[in-house]
């Protein structure tokens, strides 16, 4: 193509400068499209990382066994109770004894407790747990200590508080060694948990931990007792030695529980084994599809902006018909005219893309200030959005450029 690209870019910039308002209004469509794509992809990546961090902070290679059968489908997840519909301490001991490659394990019973300290009250989840819960769930006490074997063996009335409970009951004082009442039963505060913050499941810090034996036998005796007289559990946690060992642990634990619950070959499980990895993969797949879907919708505005570029370039060709005729008369080739108008369209879309980058990054960083996750602006997404905007300018600039290059110079010079 017989054209000086640098000189063509200078001519394109002068042409845009001569019609600043029109050029600016044309670039808005491209800018909004690029900005929306970058912002949505950044937010989507931030959500994915946030979900991954939430699962990782809850422990690794983790399996959770809960009563009831969780069915997943179009209506979401729900518990369907079978013959047993509860887990017992006997189930816990049998699974732990019969399952290999388990690095750590824990048991939990949960209920709701009414807390009182002086005139302050709070209603939060109370979890009776074994001492190993802290290790399995990767959750530490930042002051004081967590539940110990002696507490569990002695059914001690001690409690470890989450940060939200501390803020509600002890806004201006140290809670350690203070006495709080849970359902009118006095407990001594022995520790405060590190903050986990909010997640897609709610406020993780609105919780308190007591010894499992205390929960089952002193605080929630009726709720924690099965018809058979056995003490029941809300969750059994198994931490695998590696991710590769997880499927074997899940299969063996399922066989043990089915046998203990006397389920026949045709009977469905009356419990659910929840894999941390499977949940993470499921959430990751959903967020990935949603991010791509929203990004595709945002990309439509790029196409709309491209149509705007084509329209404005057609107007420009009409307005500059005499100029085109004059340039052809003094020797400009059709290829040179074609290249000139193509470069103008590309410059227009490229500048719009640069403005869109600023808009997208600004939106992503602005949203981060109001949510619990950080948007992740990836260089690849920025390059993709700008490259796509240039491609849009090139594609929609072809027709006006070809039309300009095919003008007859004599007819063009006669144009009024």
Features:
two-stranded antiparallel sheet, 6-stranded mixed β-barrel, alpha+beta, 2 domains, 416 residues
Count of individual beta strands: 16
Question: Main sheet, how many strands, which sense, barrel?
Answer: 6 strands, mixed, barrel
Span between termini: 30 Å
Provide the structure class.
alpha+beta
Instruction: Round the Cα radius of gyration to an integer and report it.
Output: 33 Å
> Mean pLDDT, nearest integer?
84
Uncertain runs are 72-83
Could you explain the architecture of this structure?
The protein is α+β, with helices and mostly antiparallel strands and 416 residues long. It has two domains: 5-54 and 282-414, no CATH class; 83-267, no CATH class. 53% of the residues lie in helices and 21% in strands. The protein has 13 helices and 16 strands. It has helices spanning 5-18, 20-57, 89-98, 133-136, 149-153, 163-169, 212-219, 246-260, 276-319, 321-329, 334-368, 379-405, 409-414; strands at 62-67, 69-73, 76-80, 87-88, 102-117, 120-129, 141-144, 158-161, 179-182, 185-193, 198-199, 202-203, 207-211, 232-233, 235-240, 271-275. The strands form four sheets. The chain has a six-stranded mixed beta barrel. The protein has a two-stranded antiparallel sheet with strand order 2-3. Strand 11 and strand 12 form a beta hairpin. Helix 3 (89-98) crosses helix 8 (246-260), helix 9 runs parallel beside helix 12 (379-405) and helix 11 (334-368) runs antiparallel to helix 12 (379-405). The chain starts with a helix and ends with a helix. Residues 72-83 have low confidence and may be disordered.
